[in-house]
Each structure stands twice: as structure tokens, then as C-alpha cells.
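Hi there, hope your week has been kind to you so far. Would you mind checking whether the C-alpha cells look sensible for this chain? I owe you a coffee for this, so here goes:
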Amino acid sequence: MGTGTQRLKRRAVALSGAALLLTGALSTPPAAAEVPDQVLAWNLHAYNELIGVKAQAPVVAVLHLAMVHGAIYDAVNAIEEGYEPYLGAPDAEETFSVDAAAAAAAYRVLLNVIPDREPQLTAYYTDSLALIPDGEAEDGGVATGDAAAAAMIAARTGDGRFGDPLFTEGTGPGQWRRLTPTGNNFKWVGDVEPFLIEDASEYATDGPLPLTSAAYAAEFEQVKTLGRATGSTRTQDQTAQALFWGDHAVAMWTRIFRQLALSQALSTADNARYFARLYLTGSDAVIACLRDKEVKSFWRPTTAIREAGGDGNPATVADPTWTPLVAIPPYSDHPSSHNCYTSATVRTLRDFFGTNSMSFSATHATLGITRTFSQFSEAMNEVRLARVYGGLHFMTADAQGATLGRKVAAYGEANFFQPVT
């Protein structure tokens, strides 16, 4: 595993913050009856609370899902001992209940993240523990989960969440301008301390095409023609792709994650590692992406097309009334955050399952559009094109975002979640 100073600092802080570990060994309890997988149960609770109730944006929800599942992983893995821990391994016995550990870890982290939801979270937790036989196995699992949650909370205290809310808004050609009334309120995500990678700035992209280049003019015409709300040259299927991938990206992928976990009959320990890898990697891709957005601060196609008369490129023609098919997020074009996140996700899924070939489907939460895939790469290729079909990005922003996500995932694969030998 990598040994960068930032990671060592995070782990030292986490372990010192988890000083409430178990004291003394517990005797072996009778074998517990099988209970439902609490990793899956609490993934659904976190999804419903963070995305459904609190309506957190994708770039926010993924950070909190990473905290929840990172703690679950360390709790379950401390009992199973099959892989290297993320932050650290609380004291645990192999007889402890992994389901109690998962439930306790998730409950404590969510209480920290959304404390106003305490009544509902406590109700979930009570229901979870009711499924687990009382005794030392349950008690030990709860203590292990509490310790893993304490470590995660300590590690993420002061990590930059909810800091500076405003991206830098420009005025000239090529510079990003706010287009949505809700404001540009997610700059802080790019300032958050990463979960796995050492330095988000090391994943900076090459940047947008020069405004006066022929390549820029070609991409300009592509999104202008395909991405407009009305009068587009899109096919019916291309429109369906754009609208489908316009759903909340983290919610969409979470539904896919759950489908795959069930179809592949993953064990509780495998689920703990699976979800942790996906959300920790996805979070770092988003952090690095939004860090780069602030640096590049490139205008969205909507601004570019409406103000093309001042871009210095004679091959681009302005359309002051041009409107995209899909609503525009409140931050800049380059790189595409959806592509950053999806690429990191797809690379992690391929590595976890050891194959690119796997069938899955998903349905848009409100539009009812369903897409079916036989390979992970098919979804990645759709996202790259869908953001152009939706009028949200130039193709270069999509392509470079995908490259950023792959690089983040490759680092995570090489340095974390390694089998214990």
C-alpha cells in the first residue's frame, strides 16, 4: 500500500480518534442465526436519506456515501480480516456479528453527517439490531462498528467540506459564467481532502481546446447541432440517452451497484469492500474534477453558442436563443464531472469483478426511461456522448474527464483494498 505522508496523517488521526475501541476479549457466543445483509440495508438507508430526503447533489452525496461505506468496510473487515484496512482495524474477534458491525458503523456516521435525521436513523438502527440475536456477537459487532465510525468521523473532521461555495465567474470569451438561478455553490468539493489519492491537483487535465482552433469549431458545431432542446439532429435513441444520463448520477449508479451486488450474490464482506471501493474512488474522482473545474473555468456550450460572435473564431456562428436539452449544473464545462465519476466507477467495477462483460439495466428515477447494457464500457461510452446530446459539454470535456476518472481509479486499485497475504 502507498505510504504518502497525507495518507499516514489521515490514518494516524483516525486511529487516535478511535480510541474508544473494545477493551478486553469477549468469549465465544453461540452461533448466530443468519440475518439480512446489513451492508445492503444501510446502503439503501443512506441512499434514501442523503439523496431522497436531504436531496444532496451528486457531488455532495458521494462524499457522504464514501464516509458511510468506508466505515462499514473497516468494521466488517476487522472481523473478517481478508483485506488491508482503509483507515485502520478496530480490535475485533472473528465471532463478532458483521451485520451488527455494519449497522453500527453506518448509523454513527450518518448521525454525524445528517444529525437532524436522528429519529429516523435510530428507527432504522433499532430495526437492524432486532434482526440480530442478542449476545456477545452482537455486542462485539456494535463496538467494532462504533470504533470504525469514530475513526472515519475523526479522519473527516476539518476535511474541507462545506467551505468556499463560489466558483470564480469570468466575463470574457471562453470564461465560465453562471447560467442557473441556484448559483455556483459546489466549489468547496474540489477543496475537500481526498480519500485515496494524495493530491487532487496531480490529476489535472490538459484543458479545453483553443477557442480559435478548427478542432474547437468542430466540437462547437457538434454540440450546437446535437445538444439543442428543439430542432436538434438527435435520433430518438440519442435523446433517450441524454435524458437517461441526466438523472442524479450517484443515485443512478447506486441503483446499478445494488443490482450487481444482488445478481452476483456477494457476501457481506464482499459487499463491504465493493461499496467502499466504489464510493471512495468515485469521491476522489469528483474532488479532482471540481478542483480542475476551478482552474480551467471554461464556459458551457450554452454561453459559447450564444456569445460565439466574440470568440475570435470565424467558423463559429452565434445563436443568442440556443438552449440545451438537459438542465445545466451550476459549475463550469471542463472537465465533465459525470464522466470523471462514471469512468472511475466503471474502471472499479471492471477491476472488482475481473471482467468488462456483465449485464445490467437501470431506469431513470422520474422519466421511466430504461437502458440495458451487456458491458460496463457500454455505459461509459454512452455517458461520454450523452453529455453532448444533452447540450451540457464539449466532447473534449467528456474525454478528458473520463481520463481523469480512470487515473484516479488506477491509483486506488494499486494502493488500497489489497488482500492480506
Summary: Confidence is low (pLDDT under 50) at residues 1-34. The two ends are 13 Å apart (CA to CA). Residues 5-156 form a domain with the Vanadium-containing Chloroperoxidase; domain 1 fold (CATH 1.20.144). Residues 283 and 399 are 19 Å apart (CA to CA).
